[in-house]
Amino acid sequence: MKSQTKCESCPSNGQGIFCELEELALSDIDKHKVTNKYKKGQTLFVQGNHPFGIYCISKGNVKVTKVGPDGKESIVRICQGGDILGHRSLFTEEHYTATATAMEESEVCFIDKKYILKMIEEKPTVSLNIINKLSKDMGSAETKLSSFHQKNVRERLAELLLVLKKTHGTELADGKVKLDIKLTREEMATMIGTANETLIRFISEFKDEGLIEQDGKTLIIVKEEELLEWANLSY
After folding, report:
1. Cβ 45 vs Cβ 55: under 8 Å
2. Cβ distance 51 to 86 under 8 Å?
3. N or C, which end of the chain has less CB nearby within 10 Å?
4. pLDDT digit string (tens) for 131-154?
């Protein structure tokens, strides 16, 4: 469903690649973008399709998934307000190497390839911000690959919970942190490269040890320091 949200009043204003531009430039972007609303489960683009532009998330959560040679789907990353999608394929002239799907009701702006390339030529800030995004994506991919090779499932689950705390955590009055993102156990399992049953067993162990709590389908981090010890993270 199409709508129109101005860049200046975007819920993620201050977090995207265009946010440092002056008001006049933002108004020009408004004229060249299309804002779409996606329901949970709707796809933005599909692996193998040709890219025609980039997507900028205004609000909501979008998962990026990839199907391997064995036919299994895995979650590459989860994107939120301020994140951009499709930029890598756009500049490499490759087809999309993954599929983007809304995890909840989301609002996403689309900007076509011709205009975004024009912006990069005219606005160095935009090109630098895109390079920054690509660099962070590469760093995250390298960290994930290293984690898969060097850590066991328990350590990878602890790391995932801490990453979700950083991106989707909301601190509660008692000092605990609620993870404001709805992930199925299957989705979490693919994110750490394990079987669903194994993930459920370790979540139960974490709850039994008092590291986390559960309120309905929402996970709450109780003992961050102990999770840090298990995850071997420096932050």
Report:
1. yes
2. yes
3. C
4. 777 667 766 666 666 666 678 999
Phi and psi angles of residue 10, each rounded to the nearest 5 degrees, phi first: -60, 135
Q: Are strands 177-179 and 53-59 parallel, antiparallel or unpaired?
A: unpaired
Sign of CA dihedral 92, 96, 98, 104: positive
Over the stretch 30-87, which tens digit does the pLDDT of each residue have?
788 889 999 999 999 999 998 888 898 989 999 999 988 888 888 888 988 888 888 7
List C-alpha distances in Å: 188 to 33, 75, 169, 180, 235.
33, 8, 16, 14, 21
Contact 143, 221 (CB under 8 A): no
Dihedral angle of Cα 149, 45, 16, 112, to the nearest 10 degrees:
140
Q: For residue 184, give every residue at least 6 positions away whose Cβ sits within 8 Å of its Cβ, in sequence order, or none.
A: none
**Within 13 Å and on the Cβ side, how many CA atoms surround 199?**
18
Provide the edge-to-edge strand list for the sheet that holds 212-215.
169-171, 177-179, 218-221, 212-215
Task: Walk me through the domains of the chain, giving residue ranges and CATH numbers.
Answer: 2-139 (2.60.120.10), 151-231 (1.10.10.10)
Is the separation of the CB atoms in 211 and 223 below 8 Å?
Answer: yes
Cβ neighbours for 122, distance < 8 A, ≥ 6 positions apart: none
38 and 105 Cβ atoms separated by less than 8 Å: yes
For residue 138, count CB atoms less than 10 angstroms from its CB and return exposed for 0-12, middle for 13-18, buried for 19 or more.
exposed
Q: Which two tokens stand for residue 77?
A: 């990353």
